[in-house]
Design a protein that fits this description.
Elements lengths: L25 H11 L3 E6 L2 E7 H7 L11 H9 L2 H4 L13 H9 L5 E6 L2 E7 H10 L2
Antiparallel strand pairs: 1-2, 3-4
């Protein structure tokens, strides 16, 4: 087994994490997704992760395919009907920062989700996505 097989996820995870609180508005979440070109946002209480909101979750409740059009009125009404707590995924699988990239790849390959929170102790320290993984793999070639 080569050393490369033991590379920890901390080398590829995003450390500057954009987060939401459960009392934030879904409109805020949508703005963060758009401004930062991201697809997953951890929902936290202090340093502790309590859920994960994905862009897919948001699009699912905004019904219309026009969710990303400039006509935001319909969206606003829909978003006001739901809270982040209602929409976010709560049964999270998390990993620690010393989990190997290979293990992360196996977890993501066998599950429906595309992002994993990285938690050391109780503290959220990063997030790793399928995109991070693909970029890493491309660098190996």
């Amino acid at each position: 087994m080569s050393l490369r097989h033991r590379v920890p996820v901390s080398t590829i995870m995003t450390k500057k994490i954009i987060t939401l609180n459960s009392n934030d508005q879904l409109e805020t979440a949508e703005r963060l997704f758009k401004e930062n070109h991201i697809r997953h946002i951890p929902v936290v209480e202090g340093d502790r992760i309590i859920g994960m909101l994905s862009l897919t979750d948001l699009l699912r409740i905004s019904f219309a395919d026009g969710a990303y059009e400039e006509d935001a009125d319909v969206e606003t009404i829909v978003y006001n009907m739901f809270t982040i707590s209602q929409v976010m995924a709560k049964n999270l699988k998390s990993i620690s920062s010393d989990t190997t990239i290979k293990e992360v790849a196996e977890i993501l390959a066998h599950n429906e989700f595309h992002a994993l929170p990285v938690v050391d102790g109780e503290k959220l320290v990063g997030i790793v996505t399928t995109t991070d993984l693909i970029k890493y793999l491309l660098e190996q070639y």
